[in-house]
Fold this sequence. Notes:
By secondary structure, the protein is mainly α. Helices cover about 60% and strands about 0% of the residues. The longest helix has 21 residues, at about 45-65.
Amino acid sequence: MPSPIQVHSDSNVEMDWETFGGEDSDVYLLALKQRMKEDRLPLDNDSIAQQFKLHLYRGIAYLASEKLRDISDLVSKSA
């Protein structure tokens, strides 16, 4: 479970859920809801949005801490 930190939305990039998840957006949403259910969190829209942001920011922080030289390094992380 990600730490409940204050997420600052200081980016000028905006993306809707379908663009982010593409053809697998339903799968990602179900996975997030399942994780929230296991963590005994409410499944209302605000909680889902907050948990998504927390997981996303944690993932970004993880990738930022790695020594990635190029896209092949990033791809190898997902294998």
